[in-house]
Design goal:
The complex is a heterodimer. Chain A is built from eleven helices and four strands; from the N terminus they run ααβαβααβαβααααα. By secondary structure, chain A is of the alpha+beta class. Chain A folds into two domains: 188 residues, no CATH class; 103 residues, Alpha-Beta Plaits (2-Layer Sandwich), CATH 3.30.70.3040. The chains are: A alpha+beta, B alpha/beta. At the A-B interface, helix 1 and helix 8 of A face helix 2 and helix 3 of B.
Chain lengths: 309, 226
Amino acid sequence: MFWLNLKRIFKSGFVAFWRNGVVSLSAILVMVITLLIISFVLFSGTLLDHTLNELKDRVDVNVNIATDVVEDEALGLKTQIENLPEVESVEYVSPEEALEQYRERHVNDQKILAALDELNDNPLGAVLNIKAKSPSQYESIQLFLEQNYPEGEIDSIIENVNYARKKEAIDKLNLIIEAGEQFGLLLTVVFVVLSIIITLNTIRLAMYISRDEIRVMNLVGADHSYISGPFIITGSIYGIFSAILVLVLLYPITFYIGPKIAPVFFDLNIFNYYVNNFGEIFLIVFMSGIIIGAISSFLAINRYLKKKR
Amino acid sequence: MIYFENVSKIYSDKTKALEEINLKIEPNEFVSIVGHSGAGKTTLIKMLLAEEAPSDGNVFFGSIDIHSLNKRKTNKLRRRIGTIFQDFRLLPHKNVYENIAFAMEAAGKTDEEIKTDVPHVLELVDLPKKAWNFPHELSGGEQQRVAIARAIVNQPDVIVADEPTGNLDPLNAYDIVQILKKINDLGTTVIMTTHNKGLIDELGKRVITMEDGKIIRDDATGRYAI
């Protein structure tokens, strides 16, 4: 009996979807908007994440090692810093490489280059470029260095750490990242809730049109699951069709917008992102469509079935 | 078979729809309930279908107190009562065949039973050629015959017809009552509310007259007298 009923519920849901063409079309159009909003939230989240990660990646703290420190000693310090739980990576730049980089940075400044040529020795020591796991952790790394290798001490192997100079930028970045993440989350919640409310109301309207039908079904003694089942199936079909439409629409939309906004978001082209992550996006949009359609129908019809015995 | 025991219905705005109704309907009876609009006929029918609960008193179907049943059992009870309404209440997006089949599906009948019984009841109401038409493609009389076919397809114990001829011309109204009479002759109890004096007088069956929520007359072979 269960399978027979299930078969009938599915068949009835499909037939109702097909025969109530106008209602189905309006529900699909509203759900397309809902799923487009969800997709844009998804893309915005990715862009925001990518941008914040890029920003984080561009921040580091440089430890300038004293010129008289031998390479082994500097590498020992590197290992020590690497072992700190807050540290993502430490790059060792030898004094020669440091000089090379310095020259490159000042390639247009003939005075500096001439002064460097005057010197017989390399005036620069090795450098350790430290990247923390999160920008907020630079402070504790700085604390570790201060306690163990105080700057300015005669026997200290560290000449200076440029944290103080970068502190303001790092703090600001921390604030931006925090605000960005919170705003992104808030935006996601607001848009997703709004779009679900819009869909729920549209499906509730479709249910209102069917109120007499529901009453008749009650009167011929149909169980509530047998009445609501086809409506839930129809709702899911709205979701499936809307999802397919949205996935098709996203192709030209991202193709057009992607290259235009890529320079703003550190070269992340959302068209490439869409194509490369199509499987994942397909699943999210498709499942969102089915779940929103089914849940909206369930809520709308349950509200109606509760009214009458 | 059906008992109304001191049944009253008072709505929240203090309107008295029914007042101390005591009524007994035996199996195989054809009972017409007559009265002006607002006399309480439809409320009485709704009590029997468990669409409305009484404010006081009990309604029994055999030994079952209808309003003590849970939703599941109420649905089972409804499958033993066939309903016909003035406005037909067919499912607009299902064709004639599917409308009748829906009542059978709701009662858990198999596909084989549906394939056998639906054409059979369509023959009974003289609509075998309209099986694939949708309700909006039928005349009022035809729609009401589909409603009757749906009501009888599960072979209910009782048919409840609330103003079944209200929207029909005299000829169609006569046909509908004749079909109901035939169903009654085959052993099904019929309860019908109506305003149609001519039909009541010709039936020569039991007539219950209601006024202001009370039964004011109950004649075994009555006539329409208000």
